[in-house]
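User: Predict the complex with zinc ion.
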Amino acid sequence: MNGTVVAAAAVGVLGLVAFGVYWVACLLWPFAACLKCDGDGKTRSPSGKTRRPCRRCDGTGRRLRFGRHVINYLRESRADERRATRRR
Ligand SMILES: [Zn+2]
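Assistant: Here is the predicted structure with zinc ion placed in the model:
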């Protein structure tokens, strides 16, 4: 094996590991801090005086991770498939 192939394989394995870690993280911790309010649930008005509930997260301060959106979508489509096959 030459060096390029080994390097490419190493990058592939590292990518898979990183993907796996992210996937597990999305399963264990589906929520991350809202990007707009940093998990605070409130945003500051431009003047900085009043604070109102964050509109992006509805004041919860949490957002669903992108990976969790994907997982939910896959689960949903798999459930649909099962429902469709059962009907036949
Ligand atoms: Zn927010």
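Residues 3-28 form the longest helix (26 residues).
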